[in-house]
Amino acid sequence: MAGSSPSVHGPEDIPEAPDGWIGGDLVNTGGNLFARMWIHPEKELRVGYAVDDPDSVGVERVRLEGEDQSNPLSWVHVDNLEGETCDGEQDCLETAIRTMSASDLDCR
Question: What residue spans carry the region label Disordered (predicted)?
Answer without folding.
Answer: 1-23
